[in-house]
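Case study 2.
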Amino acid sequence: MSIVIDKRIIPLTSLPRSGSTLLMSILNQNTSFTAFPDSDLPVLLVSIKAWSSEKIKNSQLPHKVFQESIINFCRSGAEAWLNNNCPTNFSIDKNRAWIHQHQFMFQVFPNIKMILNIRDLRFVINSMLKAQSNTFNINFQNYYQNLNEDFMIQRIKDCLNVKCLKQSLVALKELIDIGPSYREQILIFRNEELILNPQNSMNRIYDFFELPRYEHDFNHIEKVEPHYDNMYMPYGNHQIRSKLETKLPETLTHVPKRYADWIVEEYKWFYEFFYPEVLRQ
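Prediction:
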C-alpha cells in the first residue's frame, strides 16, 4: 500500500547544544515553512513503535502483515497530523527522536530527507558545563564516584552520558560504522558553517531538498514560540540572539585545554568523520 503525504516533513534533528533552535528559527522565516519546536509527531510515532513491539507477541496477524500494518498506520497518522496542524506545504519538525530512532523513521518514510545539526563536541560539552554553573539544580557530589580520578574528567564523562547526548552520539557512530543505505538522505549540517557562512549554509539546505533558495534575514531572527525549556533543564535554554554574529567563540570558557584534548582523543572517531581539521591542528 502506497501513501502519499501531500505536506512534506523536513525533520530537523541534532546534537544537544548545537544550534538547532537557531537554525529552526532562521528556516521559519520562509513563508513556505511551519516550524514545530520539540514536535509531538516523532514522539507519537516512537510510542506506536514501542506499543507494537510489545503487542506483536500476542498478535493473531502474521509478523510481516502486522509490521506492514503498523508502518502504514504511522504513515496515515502522520498525514492526518500534518493536515490538521501544518498550514503550509513544509513542516520543519524539530526533535532528536528522528535521529535517535532513525532506523524506524526510514522504515515509515523511506524517501524522507533529514537535517542533522552538529557541533564540535568540545563546544557542546563547554555549553553543558556552562549551563551547570548557572543553575542550583545540579548536585555536583553526584558526579564524583571515584576520588582517585580527576573531578573535571568525571563531570565531562557525566555530560557525555546525559541521555540526549549519548543517544545522539550512538546514532552518529552507527551512521558511520554501519553505513545504512539512507545515509545519503541525511544532511550533516555543521553549526560552525552556519555562523561563518550563513547564506551559503542555508543554500546547502535548499539544494539538498531540491527547493528554491530563499534569502534569509540574519539581522532580525525571531525565535519560534512556544518552546518549553523546563523538561530539558539545565541544558534546555533555547534563547537565541535576534542578530546572527558571524564569529565563532575563540576560547572554551569552561573546558581547559588538556580536557578539550582529552575529548578529542576519546572521541577521535567523531573528529575523523565530522571535524578532521581539528586533528590536523
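The domain at 8-280 is CATH 3.40.50.300 (Rossmann fold).
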